[in-house]
Design a protein that fits this description.
By secondary structure, the protein is α+β, with helices and mostly antiparallel strands. The chain has 16 helices and 21 strands. Strand 15 and strand 16 form a beta hairpin.
């Protein structure tokens, strides 16, 4: 029998503070410790679990500065084991988990009220040879491109996004379009992955590829972080050119712009094409960037590339790496001079089939105002080779007989640093309206890096006949449903 003194001692012990609950952000008593996750419950880590206010606030939003949600803890992993350990811990306690590379989404896709894993702490190149590079998911594409280019002979990833200061794991989780390299001849970044190391929602570390656990491979590439956390990737490499010749052509009318764009994307000698557009002032302006890569002493055949086009180009000739880092230099300048990271960016990003894009932009552009894009924003068009896509994700428009499909971006940027709830609400409503019309009338499909509010039903509609397989993969690899809650894809499960 317990004595009165023993009973009181036990009661006092139960009432004493024995640890800190980083997820509830409060100190816990002995009585609570048995049922609440606390610091004392977390196994040893190679890295660090930070719960201080500064660390948590630093990862409370993303590039968009629209959604703000401060997590209860931040993992700075020292290894994939750390990620597996913390996912097992969070899964056991129902704590949501998000990963953060460069946080280049714009509507809170990677924020979380639970645990945020900062992948930038894993950024090693493990091997780099003549055909493949094995890298941590937190490495930037620009760092991989630079290291590959320094090899002898020179190498490069076959697909690079326009801004290459993004992480490998981040772009592979959404698709990775050819913004500055690739697109016309290559498919997407997810089409050039040989193998992955993944931590599933159960905290299991697995290797997967087209031959080994292909269902996990397919669920993770372009899978928006729903079924696993990419920790390593084996990326294909190809020979890199020495120089890039860029032809810049400007238009003020829809028809000649699209005529020349379609000529250039199918023209021998042209290796990459993207286009820009502006709001009417008083008429919109289109600008095509068509690039030919080469190794001196050989040079591009300018006359053959430009034959039959309706306007004369401005020609820029640069070393290959300078060309690859063009957008990075621009963003770095805006970051230093215009407070880029605090500007509000309610971006709109959709896929359009070749059969409707010309009509869609003819209707869209006259409705845009300078406020819809902003001084530091951009309208962008990225042709992508549909018939070279090998992965089921990301979702793209239904086939229409053309080998090409297009990503159209309205990269809206506010004029002053955020947050700006009124501006955000206005542009989010615009994005909803634009997307609903584009989907219904033009066969558009969301490219989910932007700021288009989606319900759980919208996500089911988005995935269509692939929903059942994606839902089954989620249940299989993240049965507790803790991974990447930001998009709200499985919010009704």
């Amino acid at each position: 029998m317990i004595s009165r003194r023993g009973f009181l001692g036990a009661a006092a012990s139960a009432a004493a503070v024995v640890g800190f609950d980083p997820f509830g952000h409060r100190w816990v008593t002995g009585a609570e410790a048995a049922t609440r996750p606390s610091f004392s419950d977390v196994p040893p880590l190679d890295g660090e679990l930070a719960v201080d206010a500064a660390a948590r606030q630093a990862v409370a939003t993303d590039l968009g500065n629209i959604v703000h949600r401060r997590p209860r803890a931040v993992l700075r992993p020292g290894s994939a084991r750390d990620i597996a350990t913390m996912i097992r811990f969070c899964s056991a306690h129902g704590i949501p988990v998000s990963t953060r590379g460069q946080a280049h989404t714009t509507y809170g896709q990677g924020v979380s009220g639970g645990l945020v894993i900062e992948m930038r702490h894993l950024r090693r190149i493990h091997s780099l040879d003549g055909r493949y590079a094995e890298v941590d998911a937190g490495i930037h594409w620009k760092d991989l491109a630079t290291a590959a280019y320094e090899q002898s002979p020179r190498l490069t990833p076959p697909v690079l996004t326009g801004y290459t200061g993004l992480t490998v794991g981040g772009t592979l989780s959404v698709g990775g379009i050819g913004g500055i390299v690739g697109g016309l001849r290559t498919g997407l970044q997810v089409d050039h992955v040989r193998e992955l190391e993944v931590v599933t929602g159960t905290g299991s570390i697995r290797r997967c590829s087209r031959q080994q656990q292909p269902d996990l491979f397919d669920a993770v590439l372009g899978g928006l972080g729903q079924c696993g956390v990419i920790t390593k990737a084996v990326i294909e490499l190809v020979p890199a050119p020495e120089r890039a010749r860029n032809f810049v052509l400007q238009y003020s009318e829809n028809a000649p712009f699209f005529r020349d764009l379609r000529l250039l994307i199918d023209r021998a000698g042209v290796d990459h094409v993207y286009a820009e557009f502006t709001a009417p002032d008083p008429t919109p302006v289109y600008r095509i960037h068509a690039t030919a890569f080469y190794d001196p002493p050989a040079t591009p055949d300018d006359a053959a590339i430009l034959a039959g086009l309706t306007t004369e180009p401005v020609v820029e000739d640069t070393p290959y790496l300078d060309y690859v880092l063009t957008i990075d230099r621009l963003i770095d300048m805006l970051r230093e001079t215009e407070n880029w990271d605090r500007l509000v960016k309610p971006w709109y990003d959709v896929w359009l089939p070749d059969s409707t894009i010309e009509e869609y932009l003819a209707e869209l552009l006259p409705t845009l105002t300078p406020r819809d894009i902003g001084t530091y924003g951009a309208g962008l068009i990225y042709p992508q080779r549909r018939d070279l896509a090998t992965r089921p994700a990301p979702r793209r428009p239904e086939p229409d007989g053309s080998p090409f499909v297009y990503v159209v971006d309205i990269n809206t940027v506010s004029s002053t640093p955020g947050p700006d709830p009124e501006f955000s609400a206005e542009m989010l409503e615009r994005n909803k309206r634009l997307y609903a019309h584009a989907r219904q009338s033009y066969g558009a499909v969301l490219y989910p890096i932007g700021s288009v509010p989606f319900t759980a039903q919208d996500w089911r509609d988005h995935y269509g006949d692939a929903w059942a397989a994606f839902h089954a993969a989620k249940r299989r690899y993240d049965p507790a449903g803790v991974l990447t809650p930001g998009p709200g894809i499985f919010s009704e499960d």
